[in-house]
Structure formats: C-alpha cells, structure tokens
Amino acid sequence: MDDFDIYMDKFNEKARKYIPPKEKWTPVEEALYKPKDLYRVPLDEAKKLQLDAIKYSFKYHYENNQFYHNFCKEHGITPDDIKTNEDLKKIPLIPDKFFKEYPSGRDFATWLGNIYTGKLPKIVIKQKNPSYDDVIDAFNEAGIIVTYSSGTGGRHTFIPRDKRTFSTTEYTAAKSLLTMMYPLWEYDAHAYLMMPDPRVNFIYAGKALDIAYDLVKNVNAAITQRVTTKLISMAMGGGGGLKGKIVRYAFYRESKKTIDRIVDWLKQREKAGDKIFLIGAPYLIHFVIEQLKKEGTRLDFGENGGVGTGGGWKIHEHQRLPVSEFRKEVEEYLGIPSKYCLDIYAMVEGNGWMVHCPEGHYLHVPYTYYKAMVLNENFEPVDYGETGRFAFLDAAAFSYPGFIITGDQVKLLERCPVCDRPGPVLEPEIKRAKGEDVRGCAEEVRRMLTTDLGR
Amino acid sequence: MTKLREIKERGYIPPKTMRNLLIAGSLAIGKVFITNISDIRKLTKNSQNFKPQYVRPPRRYELPKYREGMKYCDSDEKYLRPTLYCNPRAPEVIALANELGAFKKSDREFAEAAFEFCKRKLTLEMLPLDSVENTLRRGTGTCLHEISVFVALCRAAGIKARYKLYSLTVIEAWEDTLVVDPLIKKWSDAMGYFMLHGEGEAYVDGKWVVCDVGPTPERQAASGIPITRFGEDSIGVWTSAIPGTIMRLESLPYGLNAMMKLVYKIAPATVDKVNVSILNMIEKGKKILEDKGEENYDREIRKTYKPKFPETMLKKRQEIVFE
To answer: Is residue B36 part of a domain?
Structure first.
C-alpha cells in the first residue's frame, strides 16, 4: 500500500492537466492545490489560506462583475472591509434562486454574460430565437461551460464556468473523494458513472466527473445520450404531449436496460477480480441492488470496490432511502465495506465538495478555500452546532461570484465527533429548508428516468 | 368607434413583448386543452350544472356621489388621457378622486391616498376585464382591474400614471392560493411561470413611483410577507419578474381579455375555486393582522422574510455577437 503522499502524488500526476502552472497561482490556487489532504490542514494554516483565497476572490468579483459590484454597494461593503477571518461573514451573499431568474431567447445569452465575471471570449449566437440549449452550445464552443440543474418548479439553475473554474471543480471533486477513499484509488480500475455521460452533457448531475476518464482506465456511464434542457422538461415535467410521453417511455425502457447492464458489468468485474468504483445517483445503485436481491445474487468486492454517491436520497416520489441503510445493503450485496461507501454533498452553484469521512460518515468541508456557514431566519450567521440555512463563500468560483445562500437546512459542527480531521463538518442528513423546492441532481436523474423501477 | 390613430397612439396594439407573451400563453393553454380534451369536455359539461361556491364579498367602501362641476383633468396628454378599460373621466372616478383629495393635496399625497384606497379597499377576484366604473361599483377585480382604478384616479387628478406589466413566478403561498385546480396547474406548468401581473406607476416629483396595489394587507399577511408600501415594488417581495418581460404601458392592450374570457367560459368552476381560495386567504390574513397589529406584523416580517436579491442585469456584452 502506498503511503498517503505517494498516493496523492500519483493522483496529481494523472490530474496534472487540471492544475495550472505554479507561476500562475493566486491565493485561490494556493488554497486548492498546495494541501495534499484538503481535510487535514492544521487550523492555523487553513485559516490563513482561507482568508487569503476568499479575500482575493471577493476583490476579483467586486472589481470585475457589475451586478455583484452594485449588490456590494447596496450592502455598503468593499474589499477594504475584509481584513480578518471574522470579516468574511460581511461578504454579501446571493440567494441561489437568483440564478433561476433568467429570460429566454437572445436575452438568455445576455443574462449569462451579465452573471459572468470578467471578460468573455467571443460568443456567436446564430439563431434568431435561440433555445437554452442553443445558447449553452454557443457558450461551450467559446470555452464557457454552462452547467445546469433544475428544481421541481421546472426552472433551471444556470451557472457559467470558464475553463479555470471548471478544471478546479473537477479537480477538487476527484481530490475530495479520493482523499477520503485512501488507499482505494488506482488508475488501473473500472468505474461506472450512475449519471448522464459527462462528456456529452451539461446537466450538473455529474458533469464535474468528466475527470473520471483521466483518473480511471475503464469508465462507463449509465446514460449515454445528450440530456438537453428540453428533454429534461419533457421527461420530468409530464408535459410535451405525445412527444413527451414517448420520451418518458423511452427513458423508462432505457433505465430498465441500464440496471441490467450494470448488474452484468458488476458480475464480470467481480469474476475478473477487478477494482471498481460506482459513482453517482444512489437511487440507481439501490435499484441495481434490488435486482441482485431478486436474482438472489450476492457479490463480494471487499476492499476492491468503492461507492461514491451524491445528489439526494429519494428512491420513489414519497420515499427516501436512509443513508445508513444504503450502506448496509451495499455491504450485504456488493460486499463493499462502509468505509468505502461515501456520500458527497455539493451543488451546481458551488465548487466545494463535502465528503463523508470513512470513520463517521460526517460531511467534511474543504475549509482552505471554502467557508461553510449556517444562517438563522434573519439570514445572519450563527454559531457552530445550530441548525439553519446553509450558505457558503467559495473562492474557487472565478467566473461568477460564489458567495451563495442555499435552500438547504444543515447543522454545522466545529469538528467531526468521530474522526481526527480538524476542520468543520456538516451532519450527514441534509434537508431542504422550509418552503424550498425539492432538488438534488440524483432527484433529477430519478425523475427523468422516472419511474418506479422497483415497483 | 375607436379611431385607428387613437389605437396606435395610445398603445392598444400589444407591443412585441406582450404579443410574445400572448402567443406563449395561448399556445400553453391550447396545448393543455388539446392534451386534456376529455377533461375539458367534462369541465364544459359540468359548467352547465355548476353551482358557484364563491359569494362576492360586500364592497369595502361607500362610493361617493358625483356632482356636476367636480374638478377633473381633461388633458389629452399621454398618460393623462383615457385608455382601454381606464376612463379617468367616468363620474365614479371623478367623484372618488375628489373625495381622496384631488387638487387639494400635493401630487405625492394624492397618489399615496389613491394607492392606499386601491390596495386596501379593492378585493382580488378573477373575472374578465371591464371598465373602471364597473370595478368601482363591484369593489373587486383582478390586479389589472385594480391597477386601472389606480391609474384612472391619478389621471383624473392630473397626475400622469401608467401600467407596469410583466410575467412572473410567485412565492409558494400565492402559488398555493392560485393553483388550486388541475387545469390551472397544467397551464402554469406548461408555461413555467404566470403570464401576467402588474403594478401602477404614478409620475410624482419628477419620477415614476411604483405602486403595488394588487395585494391587500390581509393577503400579504397570510403569505408571511411584508405589506408593500407606496413606492415599493412587488418584485423581490412576492414576485420574481421573468427578465425581459417588464413592459411600461400607457394602456392595457387588446387581446388580454380574450384568454380570461375563454377560461371563464370553459371552466367557471376553476375560476370559482380560485376566488374561494382568495377569500380564505383574506380571512387567514385578517386574523394574523388582528392578533399582531399591522404595524407590528410588518416590522417583524421585514426582518426575516427573505434575503436581499441582487438586481438582474441585461446589459449588452460586446463579446456576445448575435448573427
């Protein structure tokens, strides 16, 4: 077994195209790439990294983003007001719903351009009345990746990420998960992404895991076609007339086949003694296990398998799968120990990945570049140990201001009650705050593939 | 008969944004109708035997009597003249404007009095558009009826006034009140937002002041939101405008009423349900305000109801080229 430093060196070697040259590092890159383990940085050192990174990021957005500059002026806050870690709480926070308030057609492109911080590359919109997908494609051609997610209200959240921001989010997603899964990862393994193929999709359900193709030799994705915004609305919404019905039926058929394909794949991998990773929507993994149960099959990957889940825990419209129960069934039917069955909490508006620790399954915050906060009903930060609305300051968002108030209700603890990592953690159960839409990328995938597969 | 020139000048022809909205709204409702033909047939059939549950509440005010010689503004200037559904020279409007202090109070004071009257005395009821006189006689109407009364009162008093209209999404409590029937749900789902809402704007002390006359304090209390004041926009308080849809108009344009009439004709039970739901909401809010007192309620809720939103911008970016 490699020691941790060698393990991370190997990871950084495979992920090197995601790491900018050192001479270009700003305080943000220092906080992201310098620590080998983002969750074990001594608190004093982390405090300095965090302050420098977020201060730098705040100043950058204040100076290069007109709407955010105006917003800060309304709050009477300038970069000069941020001197200490305590001052970070003064940074004006944007409600996540703001990113759902967009127009259609050409105005949508202009809206995205106004969300964007800094100079855009040249973007050519050819259509007279472009759809959202047309605009996303035009931005993508120019090197801006517009990822999206959707609430049940049918309004997407659109976030424009430049290459720098996108590389960062991919790198930190992988680094966060593989750090916690130490020493499981090696390149010569097999992975199944339980999500739309990130190489052809912009739906945030997994887009950041594009990096998986560089880190693991053999990668498969559950949904191989392009899932456009139009397709999502037809598959999720119940609209779309006959075409919508056909789309929903096709998704339903496809999801049945997908489960069979994954079960076959798992059997082959176990037989060959391969190392595997299952990453993505828990509900899909749950239905794979249900299929194994039906067949009376138990697989035994042991310490040769890892499961990384994310995006929410609904398995049916009104049924939630308890996370601990999920770990039990993974252990029972796949033989993968619970230390390698970890959940990830993240959202389309951010680039921080809160990952379970293998010891206690608390969600650890990457505190060198990302400040997690809990707000009370007056939207004021409260102390550790209190439950409230989750908010964060994310220095890794270069192309849009990543200072966000979410619709999730969490409890933030100063440190993990189980493991010895020094940074803050979230209690594993995340709920939606009162009055917010149900959301989560796994929930989107579940609703798209519809359907009560297990019934 | 309305002259062609008047139609053009006063903006009775829907502007492009409104035309797009009307088309989108018609297509969405058309789609709902086509894909739910059997349900619509049932609705139409039921409408023949339908017994309304909604009882219009009594008017919240005494309508003052019009007397010959009452002062009013008869200017033909833009924003002062009569427009569609909004006749500032109707006797009911002139009488009320005089009672509210027209030509005695300053423009700001009068506009504020007209705002308070429309906001507190007119009750929301879903029904097709008609004249301001009818609205004043009934004491009820949609937000468009209510804005028209506000605009007419201001114009009668010689204060320029106009409509601010836009497509919107609303807070959950309002959605729960309005989307009480599968037909409405399907319509709003098909569009992804509500087609139209608006506010009045009065030109006071050299600038346009927005007046959210639509929701009564009771309805705002029932939704757990602040009671919007003179000069305070509903956008950001209880609505979110779909960017690019905000229109500022001298008149309500043609075409708006057709859709409302159609829904009213085909699905009166649906409209009835919405109206009952609105009255329930008002009752709920009334209790909250009686318990807490309006001032206390408003002060407390303003501290907690929502975080501040940045203003959405649609400033042209040179780097984005439209071919």
So the answer is: yes
